[in-house]
Design brief:
The complex is a heterodimer of chains A (about 500) and B (about 180). The longest helix of chain A is centred in the middle third of the chain and has 35 residues. With about 500 residues, chain A is mostly helical. Chain A has 14 helices and no strands. Chain B has a 5-stranded mixed β-sheet, with no helix packed on it. A 4-stranded mixed β-sheet of chain B has the order 2-1-4-7, with no helix packed on it. Chain B is an alpha+beta fold and about 180 residues long. The longest helix of chain B has about 30 residues. Classes of the chains: A mainly alpha (about 500), B alpha+beta (about 180). Chains A and B meet through helix 2, helix 7, helix 9, helix 10 and helix 11 of A and helix 1, helix 2, strand 5, strand 6 and strand 7 of B.
């Protein structure tokens, strides 16, 4: 039998409060932004009326908040497990949260009070060239908000870096690079440390790059003579955005490595393929971002070729190592399918299946007829809704679970299939609309595009209802008895 | 069959295969077996799976890149119809709006204010080609139209609150313009 809750996972009161802040904020923001997303799809389907300016403001808030909250909630997973191997500062972790909230206030204020609607991508020079639709101060407020959030994450990564260095000496040893080619692998080397190290390397670079380009844009906003290169800033923005959202998934997957083995009753330690996968992913997540710029023909051709090829190779660790490893771990294990186990395995499906349309879209000749259609939000909604968030829900369900034999509630038994079907319908309709060439980020849809949005809206409503059910269960559990169990043995 | 149709089918098949693998494992999860045996068999299959994916990747990369799909940005197209396309909030300015079937058209695409996306849609509302329109840069898009009729250019890069109205049209005819009269 395996222990579901380790003794060192029982959090002291202060840590418990901070974890609760992260988890509950994550759920509340997720639901609010889902409502915004559903409103946009309903408006495109003419179920409701949204003036275009409000549509684009909601779109801006939805994009920024969904990326941000995915990062914030995932960082709680990394913090929760990494602190069991290295000494992390709760104060820094709280500072990350407070800076995130400060950033959120600035961003939401700039959007809904000052009417900023330049999309989360703040592509230079749109924030300062709105054609009179919003002020430079509104754009600056938005960018300052992003900077505040970035500083919080950098503090968290810096703390994690120092903590890892104190235990493992250098980041290469923490990644397990010493075992790539030979040597007896220390099977007790935690996958959490490997994944966390990869995240702090990649996302420190990503977030730093984001901070630099934001500061440059801010200077340009008030000193227009300080002109920027539109192509260079686009490269920097997509590097930052790509790495940040992928790092969120890599932080979230720590929950799968840590928890799925406990529910299956089988170990899932490091191996040479595992270490190769993470070492390669560390490099690939940094150099793959040009696949966002395949339609910028003036980019150096070698970068576009790299974007296509690395997009494919990036899928190999996901498909052949992590998802395959999860299936192997569960196959004929006698696992009991309670909510954490169900959600964690669903997350593996969502991630593995969601990368397929992403990889295909990164083929340059495909991208020329799919880029910036709804195919793009189709694939990232697939692996965020059915990949990342089930990782995070699974983690939260685990934390609130006191007894191993605690059966799923009726609410959970309804919520899980509703979420799954809703996610498939919603992401599937985005993909279907993408293959029909419906452009993304259009407030008003042509009559021939209409069938997709109402169908997606039905999926969105199902997702929202299921997420509310999850949030009520998790919120109640977190406030009542968070992670205090000593429960044993889910399998066998 | 369009590229989009092929992509849609490949995506559906791949996702269904992945779903089938997951459903199989879930269905068999209640029949316990020794983990070592499961691992031995699974890792044997994985070796094949990995190399199949690698070969698939190499084949796809070769087939799709051997003829680089983006035109040389510093070259010219002999005999092409050249048109300058400028995007600005929120309209397109084309230096010509009538082209001939079967003759390459070279679109020199740029923007005068912010980033835009130059997406060409055929009469069935299918996206057939695109490039970015960016201030300070000119992207050279070369396309040979196979069918006559009206085509539309839609903005595919979010460019502000009237982005969705940034549409223009051009016409492609079967015989060269001027040959009719």
């Amino acid at each position: 039998m395996s222990v579901l809750h380790r003794p060192n996972e029982t959090l002291p009161r202060r840590e418990r409060i901070v974890l609760n802040l992260y988890a509950i904020t994550g759920l509340v923001v997720l639901i609010l932004m889902m409502l915004g997303g559903a409103a946009m799809r309903m408006a495109q389907g003419t179920w409701i009326e949204l003036p275009p300016d409000l549509f684009y403001q909601i779109m801006t808030a939805h994009g920024a908040a969904m990326v941000g909250i995915a990062g914030l909630t995932s960082s709680a997973v990394m913090w929760y497990f990494l602190r069991q191997y290295v000494r992390l500062s709760t104060g820094i972790f709280l500072a990350n949260y407070l800076l995130f909230m400060l950033g959120a206030v600035l961003i939401l204020g700039s959007i809904f009070i000052l009417h900023y609607g330049g999309a989360w991508t703040f592509l230079y020079p749109l924030p300062v060239k709105s054609n009179g639709m919003w002020s430079v101060n509104a754009a600056a407020g938005y960018m300052l908000g992003l900077i505040a959030i970035g500083v919080g994450f950098l503090l968290f990564y810096l703390d994690a870096t120092l903590a890892i260095l104190r235990v493992y000496g250098n980041l290469g040893r923490a990644l397990g690079l010493q075992w790539l080619f030979s040597g007896d692998i220390d099977k007790s080397h935690p996958p959490t440390v490997v994944a966390s190290t990869m995240v702090i390397i990649a996302n420190s670079l990503g977030t730093l790059c984001g901070a630099v380009v934001l500061v440059l844009c801010l200077v340009n906003a008030y000193v227009p003579a300080f002109e920027l290169n539109a192509l260079l800033t686009k490269n920097m923005i997509y590097f930052f955005g790509h790495v940040f959202i992928n790092a969120s998934i890599y932080m979230g997957v720590i929950a799968v490595y840590e928890l799925l083995p406990r529910y299956s009753g089988r170990p899932w330690g490091v191996s040479r393929p595992f270490l190769w996968a993470w070492a390669a992913s560390t490099v690939m997540v940094i150099i793959v971002y040009p696949h966002h710029l395949l339609m910028d023909f003036v980019m150096p051709p070698w970068m576009l070729v790299m974007g296509q090829i690395i997009s494919f190779t990036s899928g190999l660790p996901v498909l052949a190592v992590t998802a395959y490893g999860a299936l192997t771990n569960v196959h004929r294990s006698g696992i009991r399918w309670t909510m954490p186990a169900k959600l964690l395995l669903l997350s593996m499906f969502g991630w593995a299946a969601g990368v397929i349309p992403a990889i295909i879209d990164a083929v340059i000749s495909v991208n020329s007829v799919m880029h910036n259609t709804l195919w793009v939000p189709g694939h990232f909604h697939f692996y965020l809704l059915l990949g990342l968030w089930p990782m995070l829900f699974g983690f939260m369900y685990h934390v609130i679970r006191v007894r191993a034999d605690e059966p799923d509630s009726a609410v959970d038994r309804v919520g899980f299939p509703v979420y799954l079907v809703g996610g498939l319908v919603f992401a599937g309709m985005l993909l279907a609309a993408g293959q029909a060439s419906v452009p993304r980020r259009w407030a008003v849809h042509l009559p021939e595009w209409l069938p997709y949005a109402p169908a997606a809206s039905i999926g969105a409503v199902m997702l929202i209802l299921a997420t509310i059910l999850f949030a009520l269960r998790i919120g109640n559990g977190l406030l009542r008895a968070p992670g205090v169990g000593n429960a044993v043995g889910a399998a066998h | 069959m369009t590229t989009q149709d092929v992509v849609w089918r490949i995506t559906l098949i791949a996702i269904l295969l992945i779903a089938a693998a997951f459903l199989y494992v879930v269905a068999r999860s209640g029949v316990p077996a020794e983990y070592k045996e499961v691992q031995k068999k699974a890792y044997g299959i994985r070796r094949w799976f990995f190399w199949v994916l690698v070969l698939l990747g190499i084949g796809t990369a070769y087939a799709t890149l051997v003829r680089f799909p983006i035109p040389d940005q510093h070259g010219g197209s002999a005999g092409a119809q050249v048109v300058n396309a400028v995007g600005r909030q929120w309209s397109w300015e084309l230096s010509a709006d009538r082209f001939t079937v079967g003759v390459p058209v070279e679109f020199r695409v740029t923007a005068s204010d912010v980033n835009h996306g130059f997406g060409i849609y055929d009469r069935r509302n299918r996206l057939i080609a695109q490039t970015q329109a960016m201030p300070g840069f000119t992207n050279r898009l070369v396309h040979t139209f196979a069918e006559s009729g009206k085509y539309r250019v839609l903005c595919l890069e979010y460019c502000g609150l009237v982005h969705h109205n940034m549409v223009t049209e051009f016409e492609v005819t079967a015989v060269p313009q001027g040959a009719k009269s």
